[in-house]
Amino acid sequence: MRMAMALLCLVWGFNFVIMKLGNGAFPPVMFAALRFLTGAVVLFAVCLIRKTPVPRRSDMKWYIICGLLQTTFFNIAIQISLNYVSAGLTSVLTYSMPLFLSIMAHRWIPGERLTLQKTTGIAVGLAGLFIAMNIQSGGSFWAVLLALSSAISWAAANLLFKIKLKHADPLQYTTWQMAIGAAGLWAFSLSFERGSVQWGLMPIIYILFSGIIASALAFVMWNLILSRTEASKASVSLLLVPVVGILSGYIFLNESLHLVTLVGILLVLAGIWIVNMKQMGIKKALN
Fold first, then answer.
1. Regions of the chain short of the pLDDT cut 50
2. How far apart are CA 104 and CA 59, in angstroms?
3. What's the pLDDT score for residue 281?
4. CA neighbours within 13 Å on the CB side: how many for 274?
5. Is the dihedral of CA 118, 124, 130, 135 positive or negative?
6. What's the confidence (pLDDT) of residue 209?
7. Taking CA 238 as the corner, what is the angle to CA 99 and CA 253, rounded to the nearest 5 degrees?
8. Closest C-alpha to 269, from 89, 128, 87
9. Which of 15, 14, 32 is nearest to 72 (CA)?
């Protein structure tokens, strides 16, 4: 399981670079639609081979909601933000999701209530987000907020999966919500996007990597982990994703690293770590 988590962090972190490069060849939401359509086709083929049943009719409304939250809105927010915000900072804002998931889990998931430890971590993480949002050099404040909204949307989808679809097979869930989300992305792209498409070997590689590796494989892995672990604890596996995103942006996209940016990022990571670290004896006594 630890190896799977490490691989997941590497794939999702590096994929921010791939998405930014993909935005240079396609309109941003169209690229996301191509990515998840590719992932959904691959997963439907796997479901056919495994003879995975279709979802229950009573569950379809939750698949639709999760698909729109986790795949449609989540990726619209990220792809648009990447045109105005660096890949590294976008990854930090997106993967602040555990902070918001912990807040939501406090209300709706038994056994995952907010404690002093979690509240402290959330406060530290939100302070980091505030610093990061206010040090955008040449960036757009609304785009930063849009990237942050992707974290909230993803947290809501994860919460619904844990509450309403905990009986669902992770492969089945990933496949159907991804297909539904891809349809939403296509609808948005055809309705609102304008721009040219530049086909070639590298754009195809961007789609295949993002679709098969960073979507089909990675989201099945994540939903499998989430289905077997507490929501707040599962999210700790994502701590390294923004770090990989920052380093990847610096290495492959020549993005700059400012000291104040690093301070905000470190506070975000510290907040998420505090939220998810094991409770100590003193903490248990306080509770």
1. 135-136, 280-287
2. 21
3. 41
4. 21
5. negative
6. 97
7. 110
8. 128
9. 32
Residue pair 244/14 in contact (Cβ under 8 Å)? The answer is yes
Six-digit token string for 17: 């670079």
Tokens of 83: 């045109």
Backbone angles phi, psi at 115, to 5 degrees: -115, 180
> Tokens representing 219?
């989201």
Q: Cα–Cα–Cα angle for 12, 17, 22, nearest 5°? A: 110
Provide the 10 A C-beta neighbour count for residue 72.
25
Q: Determine contact, residues 221/4, Cβ cutoff 8 Å.
A: yes
pLDDT tens, 94-126? 888 888 888 888 888 877 777 788 788 888 888
User: Which residues have CB under 8 Å from 90's CB, separation 6+?
Assistant: 16, 78, 81, 82, 147, 245
